[in-house]
Structures are given as structure tokens and as C-alpha cells.
Amino acid sequence: MSQPWAASAPQPLTSPVPPGPLPRLRDPMWQRGHTLLLVLMFITAAIGVVGVGFFAITSGDAAGSGLSLLYALLPLPALLGCFFWLDRYEPEPWHYKLAAVVWGGVVSVALALVAQIFIAETFDLSDKVLATFIAPVTEEPAKCLFLVLTFLRMRRVIDGVIDGLVFAGLVGLGFAFVENVGYYAGAYLGIDETGIDGAGATTVTFVLRGIMSPFAHPMFTAAFGIAVGLSVRQRSTGVKALLWVGGLLGSMLLHGIWNGGVSYLGGTGFLLAYGFTGLLLAGTVVLAAIARRNQGRYLARALTDIARRGWLVADEIPFIASLSYRRKAVKHARAHGGDISAKATRRYQRDAITMAFLYAGVIDRLAKPKAAERVDGFLAEMRLLRPYVVLPPPLRFAYAPPRPPYGQAPYAPAPYGRAPYAPPGQGVPQYGMNTPYAPRPPYVPPVPQGPPPPAPSTRPPDVPPHGPRPDGSSAHRPG
User: Fold this and answer.
1) How many CB atoms are closer than 10 A to CB 269?
2) 396 three-state secondary structure
3) pLDDT, tens digit, for every residue of 327-344?
4) In this structure, how many other beta carbons lie within 10 angstroms of the beta carbon of residue 38?
5) Residue 101 in 3-state DSSP?
6) Distance, CA of 1 to CA of 322 (rounded, Å)
7) How many CB atoms are closer than 10 A to CB 448?
8) Contact 40, 170 (CB under 8 A)
9) What H or E segment, with its residue span, contains residue 174?
């Protein structure tokens, strides 16, 4: 995202941080039943730890178990970092992202394993058929079910393609982690296709799965995540359903191509499938980068319109919309107001970001449930946090802002004098101006450099051909 702000001259702070701790605030994102879901998530995670240990000990000895766990854990921090980086403009709460990993590693593995065992015992199918056709049909719906439940209950979390990619990728990472532990343990025992056993076989399997194809499962599920993200912007239920069905079919098809290439064509099939999925992964990365950039611009536009309505001070926009200025603001707050101010600044930024996306959804006529009440809730919390927030000196725009439409002055109320979500005739809510600084001297524009502007012309204005001239004589058209 380009940054159209340039720093102005430093100005001293005049409003100290109030003494005492931050006030106790209720998170506007909190939903009924949220505590129960958190408890269930941690219980499920504990069950998952036990399951991972069981898969690891199937290698037969302590060395094999430790190597299997080590190889499964090695790429995990870097892979998680990729999705956390992607989620930086509008970071989702940590417990939602942890729930995605737990679902992928525990619930989806359990659902897929039960379905595969049932099908294998009911029908006489070869391993190739099970891997190529049954595994995609059982594993992908089990992973995608998390996004379905998240969309239905927590629609406030999924705002677009970026959120769909992040949650789908985290579910896929959790599934791949548990599956890799089982594969590494099996390779240690020599029950895979390499023909060798021990640490050498486990290392070969790690190179194939942990280094050459770590994004396989996240990419399969990403097809459905993109479809869910696109459906957020659709008003038609039929279009949403078509997107979801197409995304699920795409996830199963990608998974089947990957498994089928290895099962039926061996090494050649692996190379072909690897090249095909590699191209798709590159396209997904490009799509994610474009969507991330657009998300930043979308946030800046929403905050600018919010400032026009007087709900936010324009000087604060760079410290909310720009990733680099967010970090500088938190660092500045810690240096001048301590840890309490830094914590308040981070939460103030998070509240403003979430409020801006809720507001933008209302403007686009794609409002989430109770969007107006939640916007008011975030604004009320921001007013309580604002005295503890210490921002750096304000920035100024490096270019002249565009002329406001409808002849409005900057930061004037919206057209027709009402908020976008208010009933007809209701005025814009009058929120207090939470100005970040005390009164300060007005900004003095710099002296322009270069040659002086030309002097104004003294030539008399033009007159009609037959009108009087300035000296009183008549003007005649040439004959």
C-alpha cells in the first residue's frame, strides 16, 4: 500500500496519560456462547496433543517418535508466519485462528479418518482408489466445514478473500501437521514406497512433504476459502451457494490431482502434479498479494469517510491504516506513556480497524448482523481508550486532498444529513471529537521553491466585436 503521508515538524505532547490502569472494557466482538466455545476448543486441543503423541509412538521407539515430531514441527512456525503476515491489515482475534488450527488437526482428521475406515471396510477398494478418490472426498469437506460454521455463526470474522485464505490455510496447516506425523512415523518403520526405513526414510519423506510441498493441504482448502471470501460480497443466496459448491469441488479436484498423480504415474506423476500445483500456488500468492493491497486501500478509504463524519480525527488515520505507522505509534506510546499506553494504542487501532470494516459494509449495503450497534459499541470503547493513547506528532498529506463532493466542507456530515444506517430523518450521531492533542498552532505551509509566479495580467477584458472599447471608440467587424 502506498503511503501518501509525510511527517510534519515534531510538536510536544500536552495531554499526559491518566494515572491508573485501563478501564475494564467489554469486547464488542463478544458473542453469546463464546466462552463455551473457547472451553471446547482448549479441550479439543488437549485431545489433539494426545492424538499426535499416539501417531508419533507408532514409529516403534523413542528416536523415531522424536524425529517424527521434530520434522512435523520444523516448518510450522514459518508457515504460520505466512498466514499471520497475510492477516495484518485486519488481524483477526488469536482464538479464532487457533480454533482453525485445532479444527484442522483434530476435528477434520477425526471426521476424515472415521469416514475412510468405514468406506474401506464396506467396499473392497485398492489403495490407489482410496488415495485418489476417497481421501479428497472425505478430507476436504471435513476441513471446509470449519469455514462454513465460522461463516454462519461468526460472520463478523470473514470479511473477504483475505480472511477466507487465512482461515482455510490455517485449517490446512493443522491437518497437514497431524498427517505428517503419521507419515514420518510410517516411513521410520519402512511401510511407505521408499523401500528403506529408519532415519533416512523419515528424512526423505520430510524433504518431499515438509520442504517441497508444505503448502499442499492449505492450497487445497484455499479454493473453498476464496469462494467463501467472494460470497461475502454477494447479495444473492443462489450466487453464494454456487460459489460454495464450486469452491468445494475445486478443493477436492486439486487434492485428487495431487494424490492421483503420485498413485497412478509414480515419479513422473509426482513431477507433473507438483508443477501443476506449483503454478496454482504461485497464482494464489499473487491473488493474496493483490487482495491484501486492496484491503489496505479499502481500509484507508473507509477511515477517511469516517473522519469526514466527525467520528474520527483525520490525524489518526495514518496510525491506523498504515502497517509501518501502526508499529511506530505503539513504539511511541510505550516510550511516552508506558506499557499501559502501548496496550491502549494497540486496542484503539484494532477497534478502529474493525469499526471501519463494519462501517464500509453498511455503506456498500452488505452490512453484517447488528452492524449499527457494533459500530456504536466500538466508537464508545474508543472514546474510553483515547485518553490513554499517545500518538506521534500528526502527519500531513503530501498532496492536496480532492475537493469534497456536493460542495461539502471536509469532515462535514454525510449527504442528506444522516448516517448511512440510520432511519430516514434521523441525524448523524454526535460523537465527541476525541482530538489526540491539545490546541496547537495552525499549520504553516512551506514557502514554495522555484521562480515566482507570473504577475497578473493588466490587459482589459475582451469586449464583443460591436461593443465599446475601453477608450470610448466603437469596435467594428472588418469588412
Assistant:
1) 17
2) strand
3) 999 999 998 888 889 999
4) 13
5) helix
6) 8
7) 8
8) no
9) helix 161-189
Residues 6+ apart with CB under 8 A from 65: 53, 56, 57, 59, 185
Does residue 345 carry a pLDDT above 50? yes
For the residues 367-389, what does the mean pLDDT come to? 84
Amino acid symbol at 239: V
User: Cell numbers of 133, please?
Assistant: 478418490
Which helix (H) or strand (E) covers residue 293, if one does? helix 237-308
φ and ψ at residue 5, rounded to 5 degrees: -110, 145
* Nearest C-alpha neighbor of 132 from the set 219, 276, 280, 253: 253
Q: Determine the pLDDT at residue 34.
A: 72
The backbone torsions φ and ψ at residue 465, rounded to the nearest 5 degrees and listed phi first, read -60, -35
Which has the minimum average pLDDT: 28-32, 82-86, 288-292, 434-438?
A: 434-438
* Ramachandran assignment for 57, one of left (phi > 0), alpha (psi -120 to 50 degrees), beta (any other): alpha
| Cα Dmax for the chain | 115
Alpha-helical regions (H) of 309-451:
318-321, 323-363, 371-385
Task: Report the relative pairing of strands 395-397 and 5-7 from DSSP bridges.
Answer: antiparallel
Name which of 58-67, 81-90, 103-112, 432-441 the model is least confident about: 432-441
d(CA 11, CA 83): 38
- Res. 291: pLDDT tops 70: yes
Residues 6+ away with beta carbon under 8 Å from 371: 358, 359, 361, 362, 421
**What is the number of other CB atoms lying within 10 angstroms of the CB of residue 456?**
6
Helix (H, G, I), strand (E, B) or coil at 349: helix
Mean pLDDT of all residues in 91-103? 89
Angle formed by the axes of helices 108-122 and 135-153, to 10°?
Answer: 140
